[in-house]
Each structure stands twice: as structure tokens, then as C-alpha cells.
Write the C-alpha cells for this entry.
Amino acid sequence: MLVSDDSCILDNMRMVFTGIIQSSGHKSGLYLESAEKIFLTEREKEKSMRKTGKHIVSKVLPGSIAEELEIEPGDELVSVSGKEIEDILDYHYLMNDEYVELLIRKPNGEEWELEIEKEYEDDIGIEFENGLMDNYRSCHNKCIFCFIDQMPKGMRDTLYFKDDDSRLSFLQGNYVTLTNMSDHDIDRIVYYHMEPMNISFQTMNPDLRCKMLHNRFAGEALKKVDRFYEAGIHMNGQIVLCKGVNDGAELDFSIRELTKYLPYLQSVSVVPVGLSKYRDGLFPLEPFDKEDAKKVLDLIHGWQEKVCQEYGIHFIHASDEWYILAGQPFPPAEQYDGYLQLENGVGMIRLLTEEFHEGLKEAVTDGKKRHVTIATGHSAVGTIRKLAEELCEKFPNVTVDVYEIVNHFFGEQITVSGLMTGTDLKEQLQGKDLGETLLLPVNILRSGEDVQILLDDITIPELENTLQIPISIVQSNGQDLVDKILGRGEIDE
């Protein structure tokens, strides 16, 4: 999960236990994970690639076509069916054919011409040192809401990278601002019919968009959406709402303008800006309060009714945090239109609840006493406690304690569990009776590493040692939450 556009890697860390913070607009789940897994853990390799322009194989999957052909790590892919590869998009497009010809150059300089017959779209089982097979494009904006600019100093370098790469929008669901996209990029998107494209709109007022992104081309970039619309490219959108900036009448105007792109613009999420305590020297932004949240929901619900009557979809969606802040119930599952905006914090709590209830129906225990603890952030603590109570009512032998972790590290206005740190977990859980297992959500972990590491570089083994308790990682679904509470699947993948 990578962050997208001008925001941050962290911004999108909203999975199980999440209450949703929106600092900039990106996808998450896919964010921190993907940025570190695909880009940042490959930084040195990418530097090498920039110098050589070579597509070097890093891994060959066991039992794959590539293994059968004796392709090995260290081999260079020179061309596919006589065509040079610009990036991963070219590779996937050309490799979809049933018959392909690969030119492979071995480390000793020997070249192999390989003919491959396979099923359409079948993968041959190779991965490359550089995930995109090209340089990653960093963000050229200076958004007033960017979460990376609100990060404390001294954290690992991977957490400070801002991406704005249209290819990651297609491949990983990242949201992009369009300001970093050339005519060539748009031509390729249209030619390959890359969809859906995920776009961080923020506002449809061109002048205001320039101010919010601190980019004089940001308003003009909105015209690129017309190209996607004309080409029939499906899109999803996002608005990071900043109090007194793009809310109120500006939000109403933006939604009205965005409806012009229906039906190809399938969904748009509205998420509140996330504000850390590290905002010295940055644009003065204020947090939304309960009354603000009610006004936002009233506006969104009004537009949902209008659009649904004509198109049969709700189109504009409020992230879960708005409902939590307003003290209003979450909409029913059908109102989320298939959860197209799930990783933007839209419908996560509803889906988690639905999955949990389904899992609870089929759950059984051996009758043995069990005591576990769940740690989560403020946004989701109410939901998690309610679900835990339901489980304990069905299984009186099970005790579940749910602790709300206050985010001292980033500031108390950060309420999402995906941004919990080892430091806060240590300070707030040490000395407490945590039972036999501590449950933590998977989105707090750095992805792609043998050692499980939290945002502040504290490892899970270190945290287990400090708290003197085994830790079980809960995956991003309600079924796994049921299983982990009951002690099924304690060994994590």
C-alpha cells in the first residue's frame, strides 16, 4: 500500500480497528505498506537502475514458467516480442499475449531468445529489482494538508517519501493529483485502458486547487479528467476536506462538478484532514468538530439522494470518521456501493462489523477460559468494544479487554489505530493485566520485512519482551478478529 500523490505514506493506513484519519488523500492500506515494500525497500536498487536502465530479475517463483525456462535472479530482460520495455505497464501489456518472445541477457553477457506459449494473461512468474521497472515519480506539490510535512524529525527515511505516480494509481490504487502527469502518460493510460484511475481532486475550483496544492498548474491539471472521461476510463475520486478552505459551498460546488463525470467517475470519498502536533510553520488548519461533521454529512446525504435517483449509485461517500465525529450511525452495507472507497476509510467499520457477525455465527470454542486484550485507537474503540461484548455474551468463558491507545507520538487528534506506535503501546499498556495474548491490527506493521517493525522502529519481539505477553496480529477482516480472540490461528502468516 503506498501512499499516493502529495500526501503521505501514513495517511492511508486504515484497516481493521481503523477509525480513519485522512490527512491527504490516499489509499491506504495500500500505502505505507506499498511504499516501503515496493519503493523504499528498493531504494538502492532503484539508484542502480537509474544508472543502467536495465530490468533485472530479482525473483523467480517456484513452479513457474520462468523457472522451467531457467530464468534466474540477476538475469536482464532486454525486450518482449521485439519491443523495449519502458516500465511495468508495457511489460504487463505485452506479456498478456498467448505467445511472447523474450530476450534475456545472462550476467555473463550471453543472450537467450525464449519463445513462450501460455494462456492469455497468464503470468510467467518473475519479479524485478525495481517494482515499476522505472524511476518512481515523487510529488511536486506542497499541499496544505500533507501529512508527511507533519511528521516528526528523525524517523526512517522511507516515511518521508511523497509519490505522485499515475502507474501506482492503476497498479495499487494510489490517489494522484494529475499535476505530475504528461500528455504521454495520458496517451498510455488511454491506449492501455488503465482503470480505474484514482484521483485526488480536493476541489473543482481551479484557483482554489492551485492554492491548496501550492502548484500553479494544479487547476489546469483538472482538464486531464476530461480525457479519461472521453476515453471511457473508469475513475474514483477523493476530496481531503479542510475546514474553512474547501468545505461548505466549495464542497457543494465540487460535488456538483464531479457528477458531470458520471458514470465513469464511479465514486468520490470525502475525508477529513488529519492534523498531527508537528505543524509549526505550516498552513493554519483547524480540526472539524461535531457540528461541522453533521453539516458535511447532511450535504453528502443530500447529494447521494439526488444521484441515486438518476444513476442508481450513491457516488459521493463520507469516510467513517465523519459518522464517528458526528455521533451518527453508519449507513447500511448497500449504501457503500460495493465498498469502492474502502481503503479511504469509507465503510471500513460497517464491513468489519458485518464480517465479524458472520464469523461469530459459526464460531465455537472448547469451553476453556481465555483472556485477551485488544489495543486500538479512539476512532474504532467504540465499535471494537461493542463487538467484543457480543462475543463474550455468546462465550462467557472468554474475557476481552479493549484499551484505547491515545496517540501521544503524533498528537491526540490522530485517532486511527494504523498510526499507533510501539512507544505509545509500551507506555500505556505496561503493568496492566493483558491476559494471555495482545491483539494488534496488521496495518501498524512495516511490510515486506522478516522482522515486524512499527512506525517508530520498535519491533514486535521487543514489544512482547517489554509487555511480557505474546502478540497476535489481526488481519484486515472481521473473521480474523473472531478467530484471534478465540485463539484460532495464533501463528501469524
In short: The longest strand covers residues 265-272. The first helix runs from residue 30 to 39. Residues 10-41+135-345 form a domain with the TIM Barrel fold (CATH 3.20.20).
